[in-house]
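Input/output pair, single chain:
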Amino acid sequence: MSRSQNVVEQIIRPTGLVDPKITIRPVQGQVEDLLKEVRKKVAKDQRILVTTLTKRMAEDLTDYYARIGIKVRYLHSEIDTLERVEIIDDLRRGEFDVLVGVNLLREGLDLPEVGLVAILDADKEGFLRSETSLIQTIGRAARNVDGEVLMYVDDMTDSVRNAVDITNKRRKLQMAYNEKYNITPQSTYRTLKDKKMSTKKTPSRDDLKGMPKDELKLLIKDLETEMKEAANDLDFERAAVLRDQIVALKSIKKF
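Output:
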């Protein structure tokens, strides 16, 4: 059995969610073409992920879209875990609609609110445009029943062709499974919890008055470790709560 067949057969979702439909469009005019699609998705209260080839393009695209009224943020590689958790949380809550980045393969971006993933310059060979990376990026739209992918391509590279073929085979396999078992796909939305709620209560200022600075520092370090573990487990609500606790403790530490 070929590697592609193995990849396809491993993807059957009991939830019935089908891999996203992929549309191929030319690179020329991609920014303006994408803008039209962004507005359609925003009107449906869906979020959009955009991956660019370079950091400069990500910055320019973010600036341009922001100037014309699109609620957009840029997720760059220098962002630490705390800020990353906050950005993803804000995206889910609808504080902004479009997240732009060079690398969308980091953890935490498999979000049910995402209705569109756009891959600019998808035909430029490289690590983030390899067959495997393209398939993983396409999968960022697979948690939403209306999920779509736009790939801007001039030259149908082997990576693009294979990624599209594998995704389409997965779609057909899942749709056949759904028909056989009478399954209606539904987006797997998770309820956003109140950031202030936590199973682990942060000690009050009064509780911390007598705590040695070394112990307070150790407590902050433990919470930071717990927050990173929560982020790696994709539990971003819990990570956000821990982030707020860490910020509060650091403010106490200054006194």
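The first strand starts at residue 21 and ends at 25. The beta strands are 21-25, 47-51, 72-74, 98-101, 114-119, 148-152.
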